C-alpha cells in the first residue's frame, strides 16, 4: 500500500513540474508575440511595452555602473602595483637616517648661531686667555666678518645696479659685454640669464663664506673652551695634561743613551756619541756652546768648571730652549735671565754630584737644547785633562779624569772631538797622546784648534798653524782638522757677536790670504756640519748591530730566568717594593682587628719583662733584707718603694713595653702572612723598625698612666681565689727564674758539681776550688741574714786557714752574697707554695693577715700591670695604631724615593736578573723604535 502511494505521489509531482514548465514557456511566448498560446487570441500588451522600456533603461544603467567599477578597480590595482614598486625601490636605497642625527634642524641652527654670539660675550668677560691668542683670534674673526659683510653688500649692490641698468640702459651693458650690438629682445634675454647666473654665483659664494665663518667660530670656540679648562686646572693647582707630541729622531736616540747612562754593559754599550775631550781651559765648553748657539755652561777664571760629564742633545726646533732630562722647566735661551738660571742649575747639579770629598764625578747630567738651525747630534762634555793637581783637589783627581776620558773614548763608535788650544805650545798638550792611543788610525777623530786669533798674533811662523791643520805636527791622525775662534776674552759677548767676529777674522786672516787653510776648515759653522754628518754616518752604520747585541742579551737573560726561577714572575726592584708596601700596609690595617684579650696578654707579658728586674731587685729583695722577719716593716718598705717606682719609672717603662708589644704583634702578623715572598722581608722589617723608632707616644699618656697606676697600687686586698692563685704563680715563677740565675752564678764561681765531674769529666780550677771551700764553710755557718757579722767572718776565715786556705774578709763577704741569695730564694719558693693553700685563712682575716705579705705584694704589682695593659690596649686601638700607620706610610714613601736603600734591601740574583732584563728590554724597544723611525726618514 505504501509502495502504491509513493508511486502516485511521484507521478503527480512529475506532472505538476511539467505543467509549470509549459506555463512559463507559454507566458513568455505570449508576451513576446502578443498572442495567447492557450486561448489563441490577442492579449493586452501595453503594460508589457512599458516593462520592456524599463528593462532597457535598467540594462543601460547596469552597463554604466559596470564601466565605473572597471575604471575604479583598474585605478586601485595600478596604484597598489605602483606602491609596491616604490616600496621595493625605496628598500633598495642605503639607509641615510644617520644624517638626521648629525644635521640640526632650522631652529637648532638659529639657536646655535645665537649661542655662539652669547658664548663669545661670556667668554670674553669671564675667561682670561693668552692675550696673543685672543688678539689673533679676534683680529681674524673681525677680518672675516668685515670681508663677509663687504662681499655681501657688494653682491646686493651689484644685483641692484644690474637690475636697474637692464631696465633703463640695456644697450650700455650690452656694449660693455659684447663687441657687436644685438637686437633688443635678444639683449634682454641675455641680460636676464647673465643676471641670474651672477646672482646664483654670488649666493653660492656667500653661503661658502658663511660656512667658512662658522667653522672659524667653532674652532675659536673650541680653543677658548680648552684654554678655559686649563685656566680652571691652574687655579685649582693642577697641571693640565700635555698632548703627546711626536718625538724627533735625535730625542729618541738620546733616550736610548739615557737608559744606558750609569750602566756598565760592556760590549753592548757601544752606541755612537760625540765625546768632547781636551786639556783644561782649552776651549771645550766654548766650542760646545758655539755649536749649541747659547752660553749654557758656567765659567770660571782659571778654575775647573766641568766636574761631571754633561750630555747635550741638540735638535732643531722653532724656539731656542733648553731643558734637563729630569725637569719639566724650559729655559728660554733668548732671555738673559733664563740663561743665568740655566748656568746656576748646571753648576748646582755638578756640585751635588761631587760628594765624599771628590773633585770630579761620573754621574751624567743630561740636557736637551732645541733651536732653529741646530744640527742634530749628541755631545758629551768631559772634564778637562790636567797635568798637575792642586792642593784643594782630591788625591785621585788626575787619574779619575783620565780613566773617565779613556772610558768614553774606548767606545769604538764614539766620535772624538779633540780640542787643542792654539794659543799655547803644542808640546804642552796632554790629550793628544790619549786620543792617539784610543784611535791610532784616526777614523773617528776630529781635531779642533781653538783660539786661532791669539795663535796668529803670538806665533811668528804661521806655517806652524798650517802644519797643525794638515796633521803633520801632532803624532795623531784625524778625519778632519778645523780652526775656530770661540771668543774675544769677553764674558758678556753673545754667540752672535762671537760668530760675526769669527767670520770677520777668517776673512781678514793671513791664513786665508796666504792660502794656508781652505775655507771648509774654519768656523764653528763648518765644524758643526762636519760633526753632525760624521755622527749620523756612525749611527746608521752601527745602530742595527747594537740592537742585535741587545736582542741576544735579552734572549740569554730570559733563558737564565726560565731555568733558575721557572715559576716566578719577572718583578723588578720597584715592583717588588710596591708589593712589599701593599702587604705591609694590609698587615698594619689588621692591627685594629686584633682581639682585646690578645692585646692584653701580650702587653702584660711585655710589661712584666720590662719591670721584673726592677720589682725583684729594687723592691722585693731590699724590702725583705731590711725587714728580716718583721712583716710590718716589710709592708712599709714595699709601699714606699712601689710608690717611688710608680711615680718615677713605671709610666716610661710601660710606654716602652707598649712599643715592644706593637713590634712583636707586627712581627707575628708578618710571620702569619700567607703566600708572602721571602724577598720582601728585609723591606718590611726595616720599614717597621724605622716607623717604631719614629713613633712617639703621646705625652699626656704618661700622666694618665701615672694616675691609674698609683690608684691601682693603693689596693691591698685580694678579693678572689683566682687573683690569689695568679699572684702565687707570678711569685713562684719570678723566684724560680731568679734562682736559676743565682745557681748559674754560683756554678761559675765554685766550679762544676759532683754530677758534672763524674759524668762529664769536668774539673774545677784552683780559684773555683777555693770558692767552693768558702761556700761550704758559709753554708755550714747557717746564717739567714743578708750581711755577716764581724765575728762570723772571722770564724769562717779561721776555719779555712786551718785547712790551708788563706782568704781575706772581703773575699768571704763577696762569696756570701750569692750564697745568701740562693738560700733566701729557696725559702721564698717554699713560702710561695705554702701560701697557695692559705687564701681561706687570708679571707677570714679580711686581708689583715701577715703570713703571706709577699704574695700580696706580687698581687699589687700584677694588678697594676693589668690596669696598665688595659689602658695601653685602649690607647693603641684609639690613637697609636693610626699614628703608627701614618708614620709607616711616610717611611715607605721615603724608602720608595731612595733607590740606594731599595737596592740594599732588595738584593740577590733574582732581583738583579729581573732588573737587568727590564733594562735590556727597555733599551731594545727604544732601539727598535729608533731604527724604525730612522728607516722612515731614509
TrEMBL record:
Q: Which residues form the Dynamin-type G domain?
A: 268-544
Q: Which reaction does it catalyse?
A: GTP + H2O = GDP + phosphate + H(+)
The record's subcellular location field reads: Mitochondrion inner membrane; Mitochondrion intermembrane space
The lineage's top-level taxon is Eukaryota
Kindly list any coiled-coil regions of this protein: 192-237
- Subcellular location, principal: mitochondrion
Q: What class of enzyme is it?
A: hydrolase
Keywords for this protein: Apoptosis, Coiled coil, Disulfide bond, GTP-binding, Hydrolase, Lipid-binding, Membrane, Mitochondrion, Mitochondrion inner membrane, Nucleotide-binding, Transit peptide, Transmembrane, Transmembrane helix
- List its EC numbers: 3.6.5.5
* Organism name: Arctia plantaginis (Wood tiger moth)
Protein name, per record? Dynamin-like GTPase OPA1, mitochondrial
